[in-house]
Amino acid sequence: xxxxxxxxxxxxxxxxxxxxxxxxxxxxxxxxxxxxxxxxxxxxxxxxxxxxxxxxxxxxxxxxxxxxxxxxxxxxxxxxxxxxxxxxxxxxxxxxxxxxxxxxxxxxxxxxxxxxxxxxxxxxxxxxxxxxxxxxxxxxxxxxxxxxxxxxxxxxxxxxxxxxxxxxxxxxxxxxxxxxxxxxxxxxxxxxxxxxxxxxxxxxxxxxxxxxxxxxxxxxxxxxxxxxxxxxxxxxxxxxxxxxxxxxxxxxxxxxxxxxxxxxxxxxxxxxxxxxxxxxxxxxxxxxxxxxxxxxxxxxxxxxxxxxxxxxxxxxxxxxxxxxxxxxxxxxxxxxxxxxxxxxxxxxxxxxxxxxxxxxxxxxxxxxxxxxxxxxxxxxxxxxxxxxxxxxxxxxxxxxxxxxxxxxxxxxxxxxxxxxxxxxxxxxxxxxxxxxxxxxxxxxxxxxxxxxxxxxxxxxxxxxxxxxxxxxxxxxxxxxxxxxxxxxxxxxxxxxxxxxxxxxxxxxxxxxxxxxxxxxx
Length: 521
Hints:
mainly alpha
């Protein structure tokens, strides 16, 4: 059966196979990353004398049958309740601080390996970097249940190693996009990065019912096995470059190489770090990316807890409800991507204007919606709608921070994304810590309000900074010193530039200026 499937895949264009593998790669890495947020709800009894509280918006009758709430005389929210029966035959007496430690451990080393992941892929090839790290992540995920039973520190170490491996993947995928995606199709390839959203939706939708039926350990074993199967498809279908692929047709290979031109080279020296870190457009992109990841990781790491503890949804429903924002993000990302491509093809805006204009949708509107959320009270329908719309509008990130590094320097796209992820991924362990600090005495809207204010502020301020200082102009340090920046190649990339052939000299790091609507034949 597997042979028949592989033979069928050989009949479709290699670029389509690559798009599918990019999508599923992001799906896999997020499946292994986000499952812990929901798993902890089942692994740890949600009733602690010193730190838990009754859901502000109440709970279902079924949950009340197994709970015995005793209101605290101080504020009426702190309770003592009988521990809920957890499927799987084991539960853990971990405090909210220990749970935050487990959630945040993934991101301790993730930023560091994100920093070097792009350079590793540029040097040794993205195919094997992604394959090895994905395989290691699958094994570590399946080792998580025995690690948890040993000690919570063992689980922390496991999550730390998962983050170490996971940090390599996204920068490596951006290297693959730079080497394979023709400029006319780059938007489609970047949209594949929303596979992480799909992974979150599927994982959170299925994890609750899976744990209810088979126990919480199954929520680690099933994703691990699926990832191992996926690794086999990745090994067979993916190659580092069109020249390296054993089954690509000559016509398809010629089309890709001619479309890419000389802007992306397989072999090159070290990236121009001095020029990169002193580039204001690059720093503006990093700030925008940080704001995006703060909002994304905020919903990913603490969203299930908010839905379960504050809005009062049961575990099986919490996963589905928590996944809705990601489903909206994936859908609207496709819509925004289509709109952006239409605007660019009709030359209604320059690339820079598109990046800045759509920051309104990817960052500012989501921030405003987060502020509105904490004033909805116990209107659970409105609360779920606002948090879903906030993440949904963030789908416009496919036109802003998720493409801007490709604009600035496609030759070093993996390195730029790695540096941006190094900075942005620190949000992954700040958000659980901030949430634990403000909610340590209860789970009312009053306790959660500062958490949402912080998230909204990061969203909005990062967008304003990018609007003031960002650009989509390609930078001259994209080209190795001594190479020529060919205007035809730049036009072929769809960047709407008008420059003459120029040799890149030592110390010449000026950006290539953008003059809209001046595309040469």
